[in-house]
């Protein structure tokens, strides 16, 4: 569990700089240059992510159950994950109405992902991992919306065809990951 917690601190700490220390971040970008900042940020984030993956894999083997989620929560989680995949896709499709409406679909997608997994899992390691990501996503989304309001950011012009692309790619990715990749990569088959 220690490696998981340290990994979360490193990974989410890197991703929380804009939430808690945006001025410090701007100073580091000026000092290191944009590429230097991205290099340091990327190395630390990847190290943290590797620790999270390894730490969670090790922690969930001996993790203490807090509750036994009902079977129905697996189905609710699957539906929430479909929404999460569409939101994650929207982050990369410029000009969609969905992206304009939620403004930060990647962070909202992480929030939905974490909530879905908290519903379907009840061990201590699950609560630590997914609860940490949910808390981070709530704070990050709030901070991003505050930055938008302060900067007067407005959504770009909308293209309805991009919503169709977003939905199609998100649904397709969800199907591929749920049916064929989640089991081999994560060790759990969502649909048995």
Automatic annotation (TrEMBL):
Keywords from the named record: Membrane, Transmembrane, Transmembrane helix
Annotated coiled-coil segments of the chain: none
Any Pfam family hit: NnrU
InterPro entries, per the entry: NnrU_dom
Subcellular location: Membrane
Domain NnrU: 3-190
Native organism: Sphaerotilus montanus
Membrane topology classification: Multi-pass membrane protein
Chief location: membrane
One cellular-component annotation, GO: membrane
Transmembrane segments: 40-59, 71-93, 113-139, 164-183
Superkingdom of the organism of origin: Bacteria
This protein's name: Putative membrane protein
